[in-house]
Amino acid sequence: MNVSVIAEYIGVFLIFIGSLMALVSAIGLIRFQDVYTRSHAATKSSTLGVLLTLTGALIYILAVNGYFSVRLVLGIIFVFLTAPISGHLITRAAYRSKVKLADISVQDDLKEVIHGKEKELKEDNSN
Question: Minimal CA–CA distance to 11: which of 87, 67, 86?
Fold first, then answer.
């Protein structure tokens, strides 16, 4: 076995693991109960799945064709930067729109922080 064949196997393995992570993400979107946990499933595992798949494709193309794809690298960087930020913003918008937590949620850590700031703003505006 030469280095090219080993690199092909590594690329195929990363693509396979990435597709499994995408499957886990899809199952999480179906199974979880509220927007907050679904957002977590959609951003964390799907981002990892896409990054592993694109990295595997990059390694495979490099090993088979000897071609380094700048587009794949830009895709990896773009997904790595945008997916977690968009998930955070969607969850934040849902929280500020007062979307209820699931019944199994036991605590709301932001409740005191958000309502404390609202009280401070009301006190400042009234003075």
Answer: 67
